[in-house]
Amino acid sequence: MGFFFAFWEHVLNVRGGLELLMLDDPQELLDDDNRDRLAHALPELADAGAQVIVTTHDRLFARIAVEEARKKGKIEHRSVHPVNHGGRGTVETAPAIELLDQKRADFESHKDDAEKAQDYASEARVFIEARLADLFDDPAYPAYSAPSNAPAFSDHLFRLRGLISLPPNKLFRSALVTNFCKDPALAEGSPCLALLNKAHHKKAAITYNDVFVVRDDLFRTRVPLNLRSGVLILFKTLQRL
Fold first, then answer.
1. How far apart are CA 131 and CA 61, in angstroms?
2. What is the DSSP letter of 190?
3. Residue 228: how many CB atoms within 10 A of its CB?
């Protein structure tokens, strides 16, 4: 790995090429100490002029790398459901839960900042909708996949509620899924559901107080949907942020 990065740096300096680096599970054959060293070193590649795309199934490796890169503001952290490439024309990524939690922390630390509140509400909707889409992906559960070609948040939610009423298997009988569907925050007419819908259609109209009054609901509803997923990390040079 050290030779590879040294060769990349040499080619970049001598010929001005190879800015894009794509690394798939680069930590896979490393022991814990070297895995951590690599995670801390990756953001330095962006400092040197690289555009780095890293995919990994190792959440600890991802967290270390993301935390290190976040100090420099050079990170985009996304998740990829393991099966969603099978039945879709393109691979779809969703915010990693750590990114959603970062948006929540930004909202909570900036009182009365409407823009931070809008970003958090919007990210929460995208996160929940993407996790529901992964749940109903054809390769994962072909018998229960959503019938629409472009289902949205409400389509997935109604579909899931129909399945838990007469659960066909253990997944739809699980407490996590049933509690999510029956959560008062997602009941028709609830302030939280209204906010999530507003985040899709009228994000700019969301106020800080709109999010503040349902902050506990937003946090609670995202927990059951943190399904196991792959991780995609994009390290960006400052010039391209």
1. 22
2. -
3. 9
In whole angstroms, how large is the CA radius of gyration of the chain? Answer: 20
> Which burial class, exposed, middle or buried, applies to 89 when counting CB atoms under 10 A from its CB (0-12, 13-18, 19+)?
exposed
- Cβ neighbour number for residue 117 with a 10 Å cutoff: 25
107 vs 101: CA distance, rounded Å: 10
Mean pLDDT of 181-207: 91
For residues 182 and 7, give the distance between their C-alpha atoms in angstroms, rounded to a whole number. 55
Contact 220, 183 (CB under 8 A): yes
Beta strand pairing call for 51-56 and 75-80: unpaired
* Average pLDDT value for the chain: 80
Q: Look at the pTM and tell me if it is higher than 0.90.
A: no
CA distances from 128 to 47, 53, 94, 148 (A): 33, 24, 9, 18
Question: Where along the chain do its domains lie?
Answer: 98-227
CA atoms of 64 and 144, how far apart (whole Å): 36
The whole-angstrom separation of Cα 82 and Cα 125 is 21
Most confident of 33-37, 64-68, 130-134, 153-157: 33-37
